[in-house]
Amino acid sequence: MIKLYDYLACPYGQKVRIVLAEKALTYDLVTVDLRQNEHRKPEFLRLNPFGRVPVLVDDDTTIYDSTIINEYLEDEYPEPPLLPAIGMSATRSRARSFEDFADTSFTPQVGQLIAEVSKPEAERDQNRVQRLHQSVERVLDYLNHELQGNNFLAGEFSVADVGFAPRLLVLGDIGIDVAMNNRANIDGWLKRMLERASIRNLQGVAAEAVSGG
């Protein structure tokens, strides 16, 4: 039986939950309340010495880091596939590269922007808000270019798209319109992703990350 140790508002945990849903895998969700520092408790640190969610336990196998978890799920439960087929090396590399790009150059920046705009207006660092806003906009412009002629980032829906989905869902709540600046490719991409129940079901949870609920 699969167990997922997670905090519902965590975008990296949401990545894993999308993949679990796409593969129709049942699992027990064990909530780790980051606000109560439950990720610092000894019993959790035995699962992940870095003290971060998500952590997946599948029988005797324990995996942490959302990207490695999703690689494991792809290997262990290959249907339906969320990476291009073996032999399509260039496309597989593209999917992995986009997932890494989301993890390092999109998800953290959107999270920092959420944290800043969630402060009372008098306490916000407006210069920082502007810098983060511009950083996110640059990523969106780049993705819009990369999506030209493609329904998804690596051809078919894959971990590349999964990596961006959690934070894409909240951009409207922090004043970023994905369709602005002639980003029709991004707009269509997001609409196609929202046709998938795995992503549509995250909308409420993703919104709570912005509202602080």
How is this structure best described in words?
- This protein has 2 domains: 2-76, Glutaredoxin (3-Layer(aba) Sandwich), CATH 3.40.30.10; 89-208, Up-down Bundle (Glutathione S-transferase Yfyf (Class Pi), Chain A, domain 2).
- 51% of the residues lie in helices and 8% in strands.
- The protein has helices spanning 11-22, 42-45, 66-76, 89-105, 107-117, 126-146, 159-168, 184-193, 197-200, 203-211, and strands spanning 2-6, 27-31, 55-58, 61-64.
- Helix 1 crosses helix 7 (159-168).
- The longest helix is centred in the middle third of the chain and has 21 residues, at 126-146.
- The two termini are 30 Å apart.
Short account of what is shown:
With 213 residues, the chain is α+β, with helices and mostly antiparallel strands. It has ten helices and four strands, in the order βαβαββαααααααα. α1 (11-22) links the parallel β1 (2-6) and β2.
| Strand count | 4
Global shape: globular
Q: Name the CATH class of the largest domain.
A: Mainly Alpha
Q: Sketch the topology as an H/E string, one letter per element.
A: EHEHEEHHHHHHHH
Question: How far from one another are the termini?
Answer: 30 Å
How much beta, percentage-wise? Answer: 5-15%
Percent of residues in helices: 40-55%
Low-pLDDT residue intervals, each spanning 5 or more residues: none
> Given the structure, what is the number of helices?
10
- The name of the CATH architecture of the largest domain is Up-down Bundle
Strand line-up of the largest beta sheet:
2-1-3-4
Describe the sheet with the most strands.
4 strands, mixed
Radius of gyration based on Cα positions: 17 Å
When the domains are counted, the total is 2
